Amino acid sequence: MTYPVGLRLTGRRVLIVGGGTVAQRRVPALLDAGAHIVLVAPDVTPALDALAAAGRLRWEQREYTDGDVEGAWYVMAATDAADVNAAVAEAAERAHTFCARADDGSDASAWTPAVGRHGNLTVAVHADRDPRRAALLRDAVVDRLNDGSLDAAPQRGRGPIPGVALVGAGPGDPELVTVRGRRLLSQADVVVADRLAPQLLLDELPPHVEVVDAAKVPYGRAMAQEAINETLVSRAKAGQFVVRLKGGDPFVFGRGSEELEACLAAGVPVEVVPGVTSAVAVPSAARIPVTHRGIAHEMVVVSGHVAPEDPRSLVDWPALARLKGTLVILMGVERLPAITAALIAHGRPADTPAAVIQEGTTGAQRQIVATLGTVAADALAAGLSHPAICVVGEVVRIGERLTELASALPVTARS
């Protein structure tokens, strides 16, 4: 049996002997705990080498010697040589220093648990040296903490401090929301939700959570931005924790900065949680890489919510037409005829590959592949409409090839 305890290692020397993948896995958590890591090994993985080069740890490029344990508060023996690990453990025992062994837990004075984190909570599971069982239990607990089914609210006080969290919920698939975003959503008193935010996330909310519909339907019903700002500020000032749930990333054509400014100007604390932007995620879901070695060294994301000839447009369409890389157009499906005509008029070849993807990452995803000269008409003929993005560039051909390769696989192997 073991006695569980948390080690406070900030500024304290931790010795790791061995520079392989086991050490690589353990180092980040030790760094996060503030440990002063001394790594002794003739060779290390590239990741550990990079940490040493950045000054995050001290790497002594040599074999282990008996005096290395001196002054260490905690020791890890992580070489692939049992005799070296045994020597490290014996030296630690003599020095009254706890030591974990990567190869033989029965001969170690400390065991490393399966660890998971949820905000400022740490879940550590020992299972009598059954690491698979410990990891399964750890994952089960952390999953429930993340989805809110296991209440982890602080027992002192009422839970989250009143304020606002601007949460980017990703491009549509509810599983693409970040862990932090899902956690804050589970703690909300009020959720102010966009139309493009994954609606299934709202179905997971407890009954007491108020949902405010902040939909902005193109050419249809919309909640004014000023009303959204006022809702965020007034609810937070009333002592509630408000999550502003937005599709994609809050700062990629999401007006998140306006909402942040309104809250800060009113004295309301705000946390911004980045999200997976559709500009990258949706092409990926269609197997279209936005960059590719030897083909696209640039990627430009542009808003198409106003047409090129519109005096409100801030886009330099002639400059975009001269680029050779990838162009990703958001909110432009309704103005695609004017956009493609402007690109062609300013020099982008009409036979440049192009694709339109509707409702990317969701079960309703649809897409067409065409050329810059035909994509507007083809999208209209296919009945594609918002939410959709357009990708222009040679990377679309890469996507076609990858799709053909995937289609040749058995159905169960495709992704």
In short:
The protein has helices at 21-32, 46-53, 82-94, 131-147, 179-186, 200-203, 225-237, 256-265, 278-285, 317-322, 336-345, 375-381, 395-407, and strands at residues 13-17, 36-40, 58-60, 74-77, 98-101, 114-118, 121-125, 163-168, 190-193, 210-213, 241-246, 270-273, 299-303, 326-330, 353-358, 366-371, 388-392. It is α/β, with parallel strands linked by helices and 415 residues long.
Give a description of the structure:
The chain is of the alpha/beta class and 415 residues long. The protein has helices spanning 21-32, 46-53, 82-94, 131-147, 179-186, 200-203, 225-237, 256-265, 278-285, 317-322, 336-345, 375-381, 395-407, and strands at residues 13-17, 36-40, 58-60, 74-77, 98-101, 114-118, 121-125, 163-168, 190-193, 210-213, 241-246, 270-273, 299-303, 326-330, 353-358, 366-371, 388-392. Strand 1, helix 1 and strand 2 (36-40) form a beta-alpha-beta unit. Helix 7 crosses helix 8 (256-265). The chain is globular.
